[in-house]
Amino acid sequence: MRSRVAGVRRRDRHGRGLRGPLTPPQAPVSRTRAERFADLVEDEVRRLGARWGRELARVEFTVEEVPPVEPSFEGPVPLGQTLPGDGARPVRITVYRRPVEARAAGETELARLVRDLLIEEVADLLGISPESVDPSYDSPDD
Fold first, then answer.
1. DSSP structure class, residue 136
2. Is the pTM value of this prediction over 0.85?
3. Which of 16, 29, 69, 104 is most deeply packed, by most CB within 10 A?
4. Is residue 9 included in any domain, yes or no?
5. Number of domains into which the chain is organized
């Protein structure tokens, strides 16, 4: 029986050459879903920061896989959360990747859901309407 050693490149069984990645690491296709999701969030934060940079200067944006809920939790799973800061710790807005991805039907809807979620969290933090944060915001009730 053969054993495989991690990290060792070897010829494939048909003798066609060394096995390795099919795409270069910087190509978008070689990025994981988690990395692509983090990029979506980062792009939206950058876009919001262009308009609300001063107000969001002490806000930290993070992405986590799932929210910390108890096993007996019954109710809708949160897509994001804003945690208040204190003197040493900034306000933190967290987006939960798995619940957001589960609700989106495709890449376009995923981007829209991330955008709307961050607009709503920023609006709640600033005490203004989501339409004031971003005039292109479409209320889910419409």
1. T
2. no
3. 104
4. no
5. 1
Q: How far is CA 51 from CA 45, 55, 131, 139, in A?
A: 10, 9, 13, 20
Residue 123, in any domain of the structure: yes
Looking at residue 125, its amino acid is L
Task: Look at residue 104 and tell me if it is in a domain.
Answer: yes
d(CA 49, CA 52): 5
For the chain, 142 residues long, give each residue's pLDDT as a single digit of tens.
444 444 455 555 666 666 666 666 666 666 788 999 999 999 999 999 999 999 999 999 999 999 988 888 888 889 999 999 888 889 999 999 999 999 999 999 999 999 999 999 999 999 999 999 999 887 665 5
Contact by Cβ (8 Å): 48, 82: no
* Best CA proximity match to 41, nearest among 114, 129, 97: 114
Q: Do the domain assignments include residue 93?
A: yes
Residues 6+ away with beta carbon under 8 Å from 116 = 130, 137, 138, 140
